Amino acid sequence: MAVKLTLVFSGRTLQRFEFPEFGRLRIGRSEECEVHIDNLGVSRYHAEILHQDGFDVLRDLQSNNGTFVNGAKVDVHNLNSGDVITIGKYTIEYQKSTPAPLAAGAAPAAADGAMTIQVDPTSLAKMAAGQRAAKARGFLLVQDKAGLKRSVQLEKPAILVGADPDADVRLTGWFAPRVAAVVVRDETGFRLLDVSPSGRSVRVNGRPQRDVKLGDDDRIEVGRLAMQFQRGTPGAADLV
Fold first, then answer.
1. What 3-state DSSP class applies to 10?
2. DSSP readout, 67-107?
């Protein structure tokens, strides 16, 4: 089983790593790390991925700024293919590839020199789910104090909402958290996670939420900022 890690910064892929076999992968600022991130917001040895009993386990190494998976802070986490690891201002997309199993009674068939492998219905269902997630489109309509709207397309694996200068949606105010919320994509669409220190910064349709699947036209409040989630891509009429 090969593990693929894609290092992303501000929506731009910086590097791709592939490890056919491993016992431990270190992530950090040190050049000794298998996944090297040269940034002061990343600890020298920030986190590690251990292969144990057939599973890959992510472990935070008492880093200064913490390790997050799909927007939630973790100390130890069993990784699943498609998980998004956030370290500082960087994200690492985790993928695990396994050989597709043959259907019962089926055998590889060759045609024109190419090999075709039939897969079972379970594998086909997983492949279809991955394709649906890849095709999911959505955006946020963010309203400022003057009532003007701007759209933020949800094209990145994780959209950060907070006071951090590099957040995709900025919060203002003395007490605004550095990162208050994260919008992540999963196999069913989009989820909104409250990752603020208080855990009480997010309201959806007037109700406090920690982890919620977003639906079309959902009204979102993060602190004093108002937004609306929409499926698809923005048009001129959305900004009126």
1. coil
2. EEETTEEESEEE--TT-EEEETTEEEEEEEE-PPPBPTT--
How far CA 67 is from CA of 70, 85, 141, 151, 237, in Å, comes to 10, 7, 29, 29, 39
- Please tell me whether the overall predicted TM-score, pTM, comes out greater than 0.70 for this model: no
Res 128 pLDDT > 50: no
What confidence tier does 121 reach under pLDDT thresholds 50, 70, 90?
Answer: very low
The three-class DSSP label of residue 30 is: coil
Q: What is the pLDDT of residue 218?
A: 92
Cβ distance 3 to 56 under 8 Å? yes
pLDDT of 187 reads 62
CB atoms near residue 1 (< 10 Å): 13
Nearest alpha-carbon partner for 171 in 212, 137, 222, 127: 222
Give the integer Cα–Cα distance in Å for 240 and 236.
Answer: 7
- Strands ordered across the beta sheet of 55-60: 35-36, 24-28, 47-52, 55-60, 76-78
Dist. CA 191–CA 205, nearest whole Å: 14
Q: Is the dihedral of CA 213, 210, 77, 74 positive or negative?
A: positive
Q: Which pair of structure tokens corresponds to residue 1?
A: 């089983």
User: Among 111-115, 140-144, 208-212, where is mean pLDDT lowest?
Assistant: 111-115
With H, G, I as helix, E, B as strand and everything else as coil, classify residue 128. helix
Relative to beta strand 189-194, strand 55-60 is: unpaired
